[in-house]
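Protocol step 4 of 6.
Sequence for LRC66 protein (Malurus elegans) entered exactly as in the expression construct, tag removed. Do not edit the line below.
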Amino acid sequence: SECRWDGLFLLNCSFTRIATIAENISQIAVTADFSYNNIKTFLCSDGRNEEWMLKHLNLSNNLISELTLTTCTNLRNLETLNLSDNAIHTLTLDMGKIYRTVDHLLPALKVLSVERNNLNTVPRGLGLLQSLQTVHMSSNAIQQIESKDFQNCSQLKDIDLRNNKIIKIHPDAFRHLNKLQVVVDLRENALTIPLPQIIISLNFFQLEVYLSKNAY
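Step 5 output, C-alpha coordinates:
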Protein backbone atom coordinates (compact mmCIF):
# COMPACT_ATOMS: atom_id res chain seq x y z
CA SER A 1 0.00 0.00 0.00
CA GLU A 2 2.96 2.32 0.46
CA CYS A 3 4.20 1.78 -3.08
CA ARG A 4 3.72 4.63 -5.51
CA TRP A 5 2.34 3.81 -8.96
CA ASP A 6 2.03 6.53 -11.60
CA GLY A 7 -0.63 4.53 -13.45
CA LEU A 8 1.53 4.22 -16.54
CA PHE A 9 5.15 3.08 -16.33
CA LEU A 10 6.77 3.61 -12.92
CA LEU A 11 6.29 1.53 -9.76
CA ASN A 12 8.27 2.97 -6.83
CA CYS A 13 8.43 0.81 -3.70
CA SER A 14 11.76 2.03 -2.35
CA PHE A 15 12.09 2.78 1.38
CA THR A 16 8.76 1.10 2.16
CA ARG A 17 10.21 -1.56 4.51
CA ILE A 18 8.57 -4.39 2.55
CA ALA A 19 9.94 -7.92 2.99
CA THR A 20 8.24 -9.49 -0.02
CA ILE A 21 7.07 -8.39 -3.43
CA ALA A 22 3.29 -8.53 -3.73
CA GLU A 23 1.83 -10.97 -6.25
CA ASN A 24 -0.56 -8.36 -7.62
CA ILE A 25 2.02 -5.80 -8.77
CA SER A 26 1.29 -4.40 -12.18
CA GLN A 27 2.59 -6.40 -15.13
CA ILE A 28 2.57 -3.25 -17.29
CA ALA A 29 5.18 -1.33 -15.27
CA VAL A 30 8.31 -0.51 -17.29
CA THR A 31 10.42 0.52 -14.29
CA ALA A 32 10.14 -1.01 -10.81
CA ASP A 33 12.19 0.20 -7.84
CA PHE A 34 12.28 -2.07 -4.77
CA SER A 35 15.53 -0.68 -3.35
CA TYR A 36 16.24 -0.06 0.35
CA ASN A 37 13.86 -2.64 1.76
CA ASN A 38 13.99 -5.95 3.66
CA ILE A 39 13.48 -8.31 0.73
CA LYS A 40 15.23 -11.65 1.22
CA THR A 41 13.80 -13.61 -1.69
CA PHE A 42 12.88 -12.69 -5.24
CA LEU A 43 11.06 -15.20 -7.44
CA CYS A 44 10.72 -13.95 -11.00
CA SER A 45 7.76 -16.00 -12.16
CA ASP A 46 6.34 -16.92 -8.75
CA GLY A 47 4.28 -19.65 -10.43
CA ARG A 48 2.55 -17.25 -12.80
CA ASN A 49 2.78 -17.18 -16.58
CA GLU A 50 2.02 -13.51 -17.21
CA GLU A 51 4.81 -11.75 -19.09
CA TRP A 52 5.87 -8.51 -17.41
CA MET A 53 6.67 -5.40 -19.43
CA LEU A 54 9.55 -4.52 -17.06
CA LYS A 55 12.67 -3.05 -18.65
CA HIS A 56 14.37 -1.77 -15.48
CA LEU A 57 14.33 -3.58 -12.13
CA ASN A 58 16.10 -2.23 -9.03
CA LEU A 59 16.53 -4.65 -6.11
CA SER A 60 19.57 -2.96 -4.60
CA ASN A 61 20.07 -2.47 -0.86
CA ASN A 62 18.03 -5.44 0.30
CA LEU A 63 18.80 -8.69 2.17
CA ILE A 64 19.00 -11.13 -0.75
CA SER A 65 21.61 -13.85 -0.22
CA GLU A 66 20.73 -16.37 -2.95
CA LEU A 67 19.10 -15.70 -6.29
CA THR A 68 18.13 -17.92 -9.22
CA LEU A 69 17.54 -16.20 -12.55
CA THR A 70 16.71 -19.33 -14.53
CA THR A 71 13.03 -18.97 -13.60
CA CYS A 72 12.77 -15.46 -15.09
CA THR A 73 10.92 -16.58 -18.21
CA ASN A 74 8.35 -13.79 -17.74
CA LEU A 75 10.95 -10.98 -17.89
CA ARG A 76 11.81 -11.16 -21.57
CA ASN A 77 11.88 -7.35 -21.89
CA LEU A 78 14.22 -6.68 -18.94
CA GLU A 79 17.21 -4.52 -19.93
CA THR A 80 18.78 -3.54 -16.58
CA LEU A 81 18.92 -5.52 -13.34
CA ASN A 82 20.42 -3.88 -10.24
CA LEU A 83 21.28 -6.32 -7.43
CA SER A 84 23.94 -4.18 -5.76
CA ASP A 85 24.32 -3.88 -2.00
CA ASN A 86 22.74 -7.15 -0.99
CA ALA A 87 24.36 -10.22 0.62
CA ILE A 88 24.42 -12.40 -2.50
CA HIS A 89 26.84 -15.31 -2.31
CA THR A 90 25.07 -17.49 -4.89
CA LEU A 91 23.75 -16.20 -8.22
CA THR A 92 22.47 -19.06 -10.36
CA LEU A 93 22.27 -18.63 -14.12
CA ASP A 94 23.17 -22.05 -15.48
CA MET A 95 20.89 -24.96 -14.54
CA GLY A 96 22.26 -27.38 -17.16
CA LYS A 97 19.57 -29.62 -18.64
CA ILE A 98 16.78 -27.63 -17.03
CA TYR A 99 17.79 -24.56 -18.99
CA ARG A 100 17.40 -26.30 -22.34
CA THR A 101 13.64 -25.86 -22.14
CA VAL A 102 14.12 -22.07 -22.32
CA ASP A 103 15.04 -20.24 -25.54
CA HIS A 104 17.24 -17.64 -23.87
CA LEU A 105 17.71 -16.42 -20.32
CA LEU A 106 16.62 -12.78 -19.97
CA PRO A 107 17.11 -12.23 -23.71
CA ALA A 108 17.02 -8.40 -23.56
CA LEU A 109 19.25 -7.90 -20.49
CA LYS A 110 22.07 -5.43 -21.23
CA VAL A 111 23.26 -4.33 -17.77
CA LEU A 112 23.78 -6.55 -14.73
CA SER A 113 24.96 -4.94 -11.48
CA VAL A 114 26.02 -7.19 -8.60
CA GLU A 115 28.34 -4.77 -6.83
CA ARG A 116 29.03 -4.91 -3.08
CA ASN A 117 27.86 -8.45 -2.47
CA ASN A 118 29.52 -11.66 -1.23
CA LEU A 119 30.37 -13.42 -4.49
CA ASN A 120 33.63 -15.38 -4.41
CA THR A 121 33.44 -16.50 -8.04
CA VAL A 122 32.09 -15.07 -11.28
CA PRO A 123 28.53 -16.44 -11.66
CA ARG A 124 28.54 -19.39 -14.06
CA GLY A 125 26.46 -19.03 -17.19
CA LEU A 126 26.84 -15.33 -17.99
CA GLY A 127 27.04 -16.39 -21.64
CA LEU A 128 23.37 -17.38 -21.45
CA LEU A 129 22.55 -13.66 -21.27
CA GLN A 130 22.78 -13.16 -25.00
CA SER A 131 22.38 -9.35 -24.96
CA LEU A 132 24.60 -8.61 -21.94
CA GLN A 133 26.83 -5.58 -22.59
CA THR A 134 27.85 -4.40 -19.11
CA VAL A 135 28.53 -6.36 -15.94
CA HIS A 136 29.45 -4.68 -12.64
CA MET A 137 30.90 -7.01 -9.99
CA SER A 138 33.12 -4.65 -8.01
CA SER A 139 33.53 -4.97 -4.23
CA ASN A 140 32.94 -8.69 -3.91
CA ALA A 141 35.31 -11.48 -2.84
CA ILE A 142 36.13 -12.94 -6.27
CA GLN A 143 39.54 -14.64 -6.15
CA GLN A 144 40.24 -15.69 -9.72
CA ILE A 145 38.95 -15.42 -13.27
CA GLU A 146 38.66 -18.75 -15.06
CA SER A 147 38.92 -19.31 -18.81
CA LYS A 148 35.18 -19.99 -19.19
CA ASP A 149 33.81 -17.32 -16.84
CA PHE A 150 32.93 -15.01 -19.75
CA GLN A 151 32.52 -17.69 -22.38
CA ASN A 152 29.93 -16.84 -25.07
CA CYS A 153 29.49 -13.28 -23.73
CA SER A 154 29.66 -12.12 -27.33
CA GLN A 155 28.08 -8.69 -26.74
CA LEU A 156 30.04 -7.78 -23.59
CA LYS A 157 31.65 -4.31 -23.75
CA ASP A 158 32.34 -3.33 -20.14
CA ILE A 159 33.55 -5.44 -17.17
CA ASP A 160 34.05 -3.95 -13.70
CA LEU A 161 35.93 -6.26 -11.29
CA ARG A 162 37.44 -3.54 -9.13
CA ASN A 163 38.03 -4.10 -5.42
CA ASN A 164 37.86 -7.89 -5.30
CA LYS A 165 40.48 -10.41 -4.14
CA ILE A 166 41.64 -11.55 -7.56
CA ILE A 167 45.04 -13.21 -7.51
CA LYS A 168 44.87 -15.07 -10.82
CA ILE A 169 43.39 -14.49 -14.27
CA HIS A 170 43.49 -17.17 -16.95
CA PRO A 171 45.30 -15.92 -20.10
CA ASP A 172 42.23 -16.74 -22.23
CA ALA A 173 39.65 -15.24 -19.88
CA PHE A 174 38.88 -12.27 -22.17
CA ARG A 175 40.29 -13.56 -25.44
CA HIS A 176 37.07 -14.07 -27.40
CA LEU A 177 35.23 -10.95 -26.22
CA ASN A 178 35.38 -9.18 -29.57
CA LYS A 179 32.96 -6.42 -28.55
CA LEU A 180 34.95 -5.53 -25.41
CA GLN A 181 35.85 -1.91 -26.10
CA VAL A 182 35.00 0.24 -23.11
CA VAL A 183 36.85 -0.87 -19.99
CA VAL A 184 38.16 -3.79 -17.98
CA ASP A 185 38.56 -2.53 -14.42
CA LEU A 186 40.86 -4.67 -12.27
CA ARG A 187 41.95 -2.03 -9.77
CA GLU A 188 42.27 -2.82 -6.06
CA ASN A 189 42.77 -6.56 -6.34
CA ALA A 190 45.58 -8.91 -5.28
CA LEU A 191 47.34 -9.48 -8.61
CA THR A 192 51.06 -10.11 -8.09
CA ILE A 193 52.30 -9.93 -11.70
CA PRO A 194 51.39 -7.73 -14.70
CA LEU A 195 49.17 -9.32 -17.31
CA PRO A 196 50.78 -8.76 -20.73
CA GLN A 197 49.38 -11.98 -22.21
CA ILE A 198 45.85 -10.88 -21.38
CA ILE A 199 46.34 -7.32 -22.61
CA ILE A 200 47.76 -8.56 -25.91
CA SER A 201 44.71 -10.75 -26.47
CA LEU A 202 42.40 -7.76 -26.15
CA ASN A 203 41.60 -5.07 -28.66
CA PHE A 204 43.57 -2.55 -26.62
CA PHE A 205 43.31 0.18 -29.24
CA GLN A 206 39.67 0.66 -28.23
CA LEU A 207 39.94 -0.51 -24.63
CA GLU A 208 40.83 0.96 -21.26
CA VAL A 209 42.36 -1.51 -18.80
CA TYR A 210 42.82 -0.38 -15.18
CA LEU A 211 45.32 -2.32 -13.06
CA SER A 212 46.37 0.13 -10.33
CA LYS A 213 46.45 -0.71 -6.61
CA ASN A 214 47.37 -4.35 -7.03
CA ALA A 215 50.20 -6.23 -5.29
CA TYR A 216 52.83 -6.08 -8.05
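Step 6, annotate. The CA atoms of residues 47 and 71 lie 9 Å apart.
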